[in-house]
Design a protein that fits this description.
Strand order of the largest sheet: 1-2
Number of domains: 1
Strand content: 5-15%
Order of helices and strands: HHHEEHEE
Largest sheet: 2 strands, antiparallel
Distance between the termini: 44 Å
């Protein structure tokens, strides 16, 4: 599966959402390049291989790419809000709610397919003295 194949798939699947979110539907900066790159990174491709990567795991690739593309759409529409003027209401935020549902579905599909990634938590001390010069506050995490 080439990057062009992935772009064609994303347009077929999310074309209306991409158009509404004003995301350029090409493999270019500000368009679908970043979600595709992020998906390939998550799949273990090196930075130098992103432009020419052709994943052989079609299903796995599409799961990652769908999730990253929905996050891109969410970022593009994050500044929308509902407007009411003279009794007329425009629910611009409604799209955000719908995209968030799709993201949840895509995330659940990723977890069901690939499992849950482990998270390593490290403890340490952070000196927050700049907040209160008198007490030299220290926060432990």
């Amino acid at each position: 599966m080439t990057r062009s194949d992935i772009v064609a798939y994303l347009i077929a699947r999310y074309g209306r959402l991409l158009a509404e979110a004003e995301v350029v539907m090409t493999d270019s900066v500000g368009g679908l390049k970043e979600p595709i790159d992020d998906a390939l990174r998550a799949m273990g491709y090196a930075e130098a291989d992103l432009a020419t990567a052709a994943p052989t795991d079609t299903w796995g690739s599409l799961i990652y790419v769908r999730y990253q593309t929905l996050l891109r759409i969410q970022e593009a529409i994050a500044d929308r809000f509902d407007v009411t003027v003279d009794g007329d209401s425009f629910r611009l935020q409604q799209m955000i709610d719908n995209v968030e549902k799709l993201i949840t579905k895509a995330r659940d599909e990723m977890i069901a397919t690939f499992g849950v990634a482990s998270l390593t938590v490290q403890s340490g001390t952070l000196n927050l003295g700049f907040l209160d010069r008198e007490t030299d506050a220290v926060e432990t995490f």
